[in-house]
# Entry
Amino acid sequence: MIRVNEPLLGKEEFNKVVACLKSNWISSQGKYLSEFEEKFAHFCGVEYGISTTSGTTALHLALAALSLKPGDEVLLPTFTMGATAFAVCYCGATPVFIDSEPETFNIDLERVSSYLHSQEKRGKVKVKAILPVHMYGHPVDMDPLLEMADKFSIAVVEDAAEAHGAEYKGKRCGSFGAFGCFSFYANKIITTGEGGMVVTNDLRLADKARRLKDLAHAPSKRFLHTDLGFNYRMTNLQAALGVAQLKKITSHIKKKFWMAKEYKKGLKDITGLRLPIEKPWAKSVYWMYGVLVEKALGLSRDELMNQLKKQGIETRSFFIPMHLQPVFSRGHIKAKRYGAYPVAEKLSEQGFYLPSGLTISRDQILYICQQIKRIVRTYRPKSS
Ligand SMILES: Cc1ncc(COP(=O)(O)O)c(C=O)c1O
# Structure
């Protein structure tokens, strides 16, 4: 089976983790943690990095450090992974789901603008933060977003879980907002097994996030707590893995570009199969190579995925939008809708990603493209 995603681990990772074990520093203190935090923040072009246990906890930590509270609203795309919305709910704040724009699959900034202006007209802007997600590694159009955030005094927290090294007008994703949040889950561009990081240029926010992630001990006295803290501490073992992975991040990103180029070459002439695009101002890192199955293809997304599975090709369907999630429809968790969601619903129905792991070979991509073409050419539904 060609897996939909796989990490790329080697001798360097093994050696660093073993060195960490030998040092006996296996918990949340040790030299690899500071090295990983400093080097990853530097890679993002940001001053401070605070490691966490996951991308989800990175998002929560960022929002908690911004003192988000019940009654506050946070704008985010409905088309995202559950963690983005959950992090808002952990603070007791209300996620407001916004539709996406069809080309990059990112949050629709015109909808963001109209929501903010409608609140302004009614006399009270409740929105305290906006959470743009750089979906599948393609950057959000940050300039207009930052302009709006500035105008309405709203904090920007970037969900860059999928976008390590992606660039907007030459600047790395994660470096634009009050915080950038990353995931190092095994399918990400670099991994620590589980893990995450918030990055920021604001020393005060960095200090606060660092304190909150470690149970918020008072700076002057351990075991004295003036705030509600969390244990979101990454281990030195995970950081050792991260340091080894970080050395290879440029080659991992190059591999993703190469993969995208190869898929584009192999799939470009198939009517009804929409391939990902890259805006002129963007450097996408193609975390996953996501395609859309349109009506003209002649078979549905699920039929194509099933046929590929029979040929030993694992794929995964796109996210299910937040406004369709049962957890938000029962009413016990506060969430707000804004208008209709035709784009997100279409993405969710038509989208899936092809194998995009860092170990994928040219032969595998050729095989996948050949199989897609063959299936599209010969597919007959069972009933006909
Ligand atoms: C957009 C997005 N946000 C947040 C997360 C959460 O990261 P983690 O799985 O490390 O908690 C993910 C994970 O895949 C993600 O894709």
